Amino acid sequence: MSYRDTYAGWQADPEGFWMEAARKIDWERPPSRAFFDQGPAGEWYADGMLNACWNAVDRHVEAGRGDQLAIIHDSPITRSCRGITYAELRDRVASLAGALRSKGIEKGDRVIIYMPMVPEALEAMLACARLGAIHSVVFGGFAAHELAVRINDATPKAIIAASCGLEPGRIVPYKPLLDRAIEEATHKPAFCVIFQREQEVAHLIEGRDVAWHSFQFGVEPAECVPVEGNHPAYVLYTSGTTGQPKGVVRHTGGHMVALAWSMKNVYGIDAGDVFWAASDVGWVVGHSYICYGPLAVGATTIVFEGKPVGTPDAAAYWRVIQNHRVKSVFSAPTAIRAIRREDPEGKLIEDYNLRHFKTLYLAGERADPDTIQWAEEKLGVPVIDHWWQTETGWPIVANPVGIELLPVKRGSPSVTLPGYDVQVLDEAGHPLPAGTLGAVAIKLPLPPGTLPTLWNAEDRFRKSYLSHFPGYYETGDAGYIDEDGYLYIMARTDDVINVAGHRLSTGAMEEVLSAHPAVAECAVIGVADSLKGQMPLGFLCLKKGTNTPNQQVVKEVVGMVRDQIGPVAAFKTACVVDRLPKTRSGKILRATMVKIADGQSFKTPATIDDPAILDEIATALRAVGYPQHAS
Ligand code: COA
Ligand code: AMP
């Protein structure tokens, strides 16, 4: 069936479409219907009973795939590579789940997971799913404070962490970060499970910490506990406009159905294929397409502990694709830009046999046409940009390769997938004609697998996503749809920025900067960066009478962001200015500052309080090298 027919089929009978998709999943009790008009925005498969771990692991063993590799851990950082079969994975997960159960973890309990790219991270997620416990994975590049914020919000009964992560050239000890976070948090977990890595063996706190291996010793393996279709599988925190991250909730039924549907229809992946999402378990890509998606369809997933460049070189991707016969890769455009910068002619690619490699998928940030063209030419496979968010859990707009490869238009993630009705709206919420820029919104209800609410924050969910355009979900992105129905994402409409495919909040960074004793006022903007897409840049107005030299304050705030948000924020530059440009009502003109920093033409806003400040901002920006091409 063509894409057009598939989309029309969903439009004509969404209920039938999603009931049919649900048949690809094993249910302990099949749902009586797909959509339930309940909760703030509707729920899916609410009266079905299933288990996500069963669907991702056990059922493949039952179906005779026990000897197939479920996970390949390829770690150029530790110079090691090992595989775990489906049968081994089932036993390992059942044992871990049994140990968690013996310490009191049961359905509905929250468990925070703070781990690097090791298979044990997936095993921890799956062990929670086996028991119906709700996991919340925290990305390893976040600092102790960010972990503490999530501990307070999720109130976990347990935390599962590794002793350390490994970044090129340095060990990142996780345990001190974990200890600091627990000390800072007002909620305390009952116990912590520590996976000791040989690179850094952590000191365990008696009475609170248990070691991954020893606490599993002699326990009864746990069977899968069936849960309701609308039971939360996990909570994943993502950046909003403030320092308080949003806890995106994922319900089990829709999560499994949507991932199984997208693996086949978007990524063209079947049982036995090898799929590699080169991301991290701490992000939504890791949840959907490193862990649950490939495993739900019986494919082999790659857990890669390395970087696109520097581990040891810009051929790391090609080596992994060749050695493991990867069929499709999912990566961020930043990674391809980093590889291209090191190997502009793509010479290293020629050393590898990539005959199993069929498609490269890019998401997480805007894919610039230049990068897409380079990858197409050097790799000789379709390069598919696709657009989605932590909130949706799976693609909204994509070229549905598994159904049919539509013509690629570089710069566009292509067309709306079945389940989504994407529209571009004006400020008053009216749909705009083709080619006109506006707010990108999705007509309710959202499809299975998308967020039904925010953890402990239903009001915030309504306010953030549902209230601006009644009847729609507001994506926070701006863009337009062309005459052929291809979407173009142009910018965010809020203060979220995207640094190397990592979603970050400038508001959260501003909260850190304003805590510096010398800072009276501040602003953080995202400026264009040729490698990472965007980089954060701070502006500081210092308190009168501050004696500390400007450069010292800048150095200190850079350290504070690294210490409190984490190295992943990549906050490296700030400039000290006398005043910030504002409207007469006091709103900081961040969008205008971005245009100046990026060297784009702009109109001085009519509401500006004092236009002369823009010259001062331009001077301050030049001093730190912006606009980049002007220096
Ligand atoms: N644990 C601890 N620290 C981490 C980390 C982790 N899991 N991940 C990143 N960091 C640190 C890095 O070491 C770096 O620290 P530094 O400032 O001391 O150098 C900082 O956070 C920024 O990291 P990163 O954004 O990865 O930049 P980089 O300069 O180290 O590498 C690229 C540049 C392009 C190689 C890298 O950004 C990359 O691989 N990008 C692809 C991103 C991606 O796949 N995103 C997935 C979203 S779909
Ligand atoms: P995250 O929740 O981290 O996946 O980030 C989601 C945001 O990243 C989106 O709302 C967009 O702003 C941006 N984004 C993701 N994919 C794309 C894409 N293909 N093109 C442009 N922006 C994207």
Summary of the model, kept short:
With 631 residues, the protein is of the alpha/beta class.
What labels would you give this structure?
631 residues; alpha/beta; Rossmann fold; GMP Synthetase, Chain A, domain 3; 2 domains; seven-stranded mixed sheet; five-stranded parallel sheet; 17 helices; 31% helix; globular; binds coenzyme A
Protein architecture, described:
The longest helix has 17 residues, at 86-102. With 631 residues, the chain is α/β, with parallel strands linked by helices. It has a seven-stranded mixed β-sheet, sandwiched between helices. The chain has a five-stranded parallel β-sheet with strand order 7-6-8-11-12, with helices on both faces. The chain binds coenzyme A and adenosine monophosphate (AMP). Coenzyme A is lined by residues 116, 140-141, 165, 167, 172, 278-280, 283, 285, 307-309, 331-332, 334-335, 338, 364, 500-501, 567-568, 570. Belongs to the ATP-dependent AMP-binding enzyme family.
